[in-house]
Write a structure and sequence with these properties.
It is a single chain. By secondary structure, this protein is an alpha/beta fold. Helices cover 41% and strands 20% of the residues. The protein is built from 15 helices and 18 strands. The chain has a ten-stranded mixed beta sheet, with helices on both faces. A six-stranded mixed beta sheet has the order 3-4-12-9-2-5. Strand 7 and strand 8 form a beta hairpin. It is globular and about 65 Å long.
Length: 438
């Protein structure tokens, strides 16, 4: 069957697949953080005016990102650095009013678990989430008949029944577009790839407070939890707190698996503020999970930490890097990498149809890129009209003719060159993958 035909077949089976899971009362559990995203209306003309006002005499090509944004020049240099390279990332800020002074904003939802739950809810698929920021603004956005959380007394509830107990956390999201041009005097710098920068004022997520009733519910009702998604350790900066959270999660995973051997433990990686924290996290938790998932930038960054550099534009190099991670960090089943051109699983043969998970992930992510929000089934149908990525198709062919074909499943994405949005695309992809586990 051709790739195009597989996409259409899976799309037509989407409702049936979800309804079977709903009737058997199964759903994924999505952890661990939530926050309020403040979506900034990024305008290149505004940045160019700021460059003219604040940055006279500086070299656009040599501007570096600040570790913590404290001043307007810090903010400008950080934006130019990330936009100019077309890379995503996260940077802390001391005073958020620096951003609010220059851009108009609107509210959205943040956190892998929260965004994934929203993506699933848009197609009528239930999930349960672990909340950290449980503010009214966050819970109002998450309010859906398909999204559940666990109350302090251990019952499933919806977010309109939540009483706030934690401090609100705000992340400012700056979306930049391929082709926009920075100008300073006679200098020009073209943005090569659409991407996003997250500027954080961390409060509650720096400590990642765990809701014990959430974990207890999963362990007691493990048969009904088709996949257990772990994420968001990247917000932690204190080594002792991270060790405590990881130790707790390791014990939780073992209890979950003891009560549901076929349940999938799924770890979504992210950008970390510290290599020390990242290394401690992955060397502690990777060996406990079934599948690790990340984008190609995270893959390259991780492998550089272990002196195993790869070329992310060379698909064979990527596969070899993934195999190194799986073997050396002892991941139980395999690794998924998601990009704008393809998604790919490398690892052991699974009992589930992981190819369908990759396709559903691609559908949900590309639809969000195209419409700027979590796509309905009708909106996903429009995504299927897009062409397959040429680069993705080339990589699919290379893998099929390589020695790695038997242990690799690769699916070209439906391609969109100038996405309306790149915020939460990885989280929407994660959401789609969970459908194949349910």
């Amino acid at each position: 069957m051709k790739i195009e035909e597989k996409y259409i077949e899976l799309y037509e089976k989407m409702d049936k697949n979800i309804n079977i899971r709903k009737s058997s009362r199964k759903m994924p559990a999505m952890g661990y953080t939530s926050n309020l995203d403040v979506l900034c209306d990024f305008q290149i003309d505004i940045l160019n005016k700021l460059l003219e006002e604040y940055m006279q005499g500086e070299d656009l090509s040599k501007m570096k990102a600040a570790k913590v944004i404290k001043t307007v020049p810090d903010f400008i240099r950080t934006l130019v650095y990330y936009c100019g390279k077309g890379i995503g990332g996260e940077v802390d800020i001391e005073e958020p009013k620096i951003i609010e002074k220059f851009f108009s904003t609107k509210n959205g939802i943040g956190g892998t678990s929260a965004q994934a739950a929203m993506a699933l809810a848009a197609i009528g698929c239930p999930s349960m989430i672990h909340l950290t920021d449980d503010s009214k603004e966050v819970c109002d956005i998450l309010n859906s008949e398909h999204i559940y959380t666990v109350s302090p007394n251990g019952h499933l509830i919806q977010t309109n029944q939540v009483t706030q107990r934690s401090e609100q956390e705000i992340h400012y999201i700056i979306q930049f577009k391929k082709g926009d041009v920075f100008r300073l005097g006679d200098q020009e710098l073209v943005i090569p790839i659409s991407n996003r920068l997250i500027i954080t004022k961390i409060t509650v997520n720096e400590f990642l407070p765990f809701s014990k009733p959430y974990f207890d519910y999963i362990e007691k009702n493990a048969k009904g939890i088709s996949s257990n998604v772990l994420s968001s350790f990247n917000a932690l900066k204190d080594k002792e707190i991270l060790e405590e959270r990881l130790d707790f999660v390791r014990q939780h995973i073992r209890s979950y698996k003891a009560n549901n051997e076929s349940g999938i433990v799924f770890f979504e990686d992210a950008h970390y503020h510290s290599n020390t924290i990242k290394k401690l996290c992955i060397e502690t938790i990777y060996s406990e999970v079934d599948i690790v998932c990340m984008n190609e930038e995270e893959l390259a960054y991780l492998l550089n930490m272990y002196n195993f550099p790869i070329n992310i534009d060379d698909i064979i190099s990527c596969v070899e890097g993934i195999k190194y991670i799986k073997e050396n960090l002892k991941i139980n089943k395999g690794v998924i990498v998601h990009t704008k051109d393809y998604s790919m699983y490398v690892g052991d043969k699974l009992e589930v149809d992981i190819e369908s998970g990759l396709m559903y992930g691609n559908m949900l992510a590309t639809t969000k890129a195209m419409v700027g929000w979590y796509g309905s089934k009708e909106q996903i149908s429009k995504t299927l009209e897009l062409p397959l990525s040429k680069k993705g198709m080339s990589n699919w062919k290379i893998i099929g003719e390589s020695n790695y074909a038997s242990g690799t499943i690769i699916v070209p994405t439906k391609y969109i060159d100038r996405p309306k949005y790149t915020i939460g695309l990885g989280d929407s992809f994660v959401a789609g993958v969970q459908i194949c586990f349910m």
